[in-house]
Amino acid sequence: MALTRDTVIEVRGLENRFGNHVIHQGLDLDLYKGEILGVVGGSGTGKTVLLRSIIGLNKPASGHIRVLGKDLDTLKARERSAIEQRFGVLFQGGALFTSLNLQENIAIPLIEHKGLSRADAEALARVKLALTGLPQEAALKYPSELSGGMVKRASLARALALDPEILFLDEPTAGLDPIGAAAFDRLLVTLRDALGFTVFLVTHDLDTLYASCDRIAVLSQKKVLVTGTLEQVATTDDKWVQAYFNGPRGRAASHAAQALIRNTPRE
Ligand SMILES: Nc1ncnc2c1ncn2[C@@H]1O[C@H](COP(=O)(O)OP(=O)(O)OP(=O)(O)O)[C@@H](O)[C@H]1O
């Protein structure tokens, strides 16, 4: 019997263009409930534009996008806002307010969308910060007082503020040192396992693909060229795919992942 998977995002025949510059044409993609999908592709292939289209920040020229069972472009403002509250988004720059400390940053969506009092929202914000592994005292710190890794964790805490069903991450490990990036990769998997959300993850980071992703989607030739496990995708006959997965960095990431599996004791 074939296993059926719940689809939380369905993209069909997506076309995006800026003037004459066609970014996507006939792009199809599914995101399944509970998975971490890694979206990769060469620079400028439209990974961020795809993410922005799915969350409604970029209006496609044509095509359909269904998110959590709803066609985004047919929704009225109120319904759309209700759906948007079921997303968490971590943009490349982190997007924390620099004039607010961390607990104030994370309290904002809780006050705005859940109607919590400031005291309750800040108490819940401290829980979210702890979930992402930040020490208690970080709650009163301002973004400028934190390391890059801590800013990423705080931004993740903000993205998790409303207990999202789908988390969108754009290059979450960019700018982190390898140890910080590996810790972030592990954190993401731990939180997904514990909280059960689904992840759409744009990345260039091969280590992240090996450490965190259940499935990979490769953007190439204006569409999703292939989706599948790392092993399936890496054998695709495409110049970029071969250079990326089977070039020196791809081989190093693969060897590192295999060594990790060999050295991890079985339960
Ligand atoms: N608002 C915009 N106006 C015009 N062109 C845009 C706009 N947004 C994106 N583009 C163009 O669309 C293309 C895809 O951009 P996008 O940022 O999605 O690429 P990407 O795959 O995420 O790249 P990278 O890996 O370098 O971050 C690029 O050529 C970019 O210049």
From TrEMBL:
GO terms for molecular function: ATP binding; ATP hydrolysis activity. Keywords: ATP-binding, Nucleotide-binding, Transport. Residues 9-246 form the ABC transporter domain. The keyword Endoplasmic reticulum does not apply. Gene3D superfamilies: P-loop containing nucleotide triphosphate hydrolases (3.40.50.300). SMART domains: AAA. Transmembrane segments: none annotated. PROSITE patterns: ABC_TRANSPORTER_2. Pfam families: ABC_tran. PANTHER family: PROTEIN TRIGALACTOSYLDIACYLGLYCEROL 3, CHLOROPLASTIC (PTHR43023). This is ABC transporter ATP-binding protein.
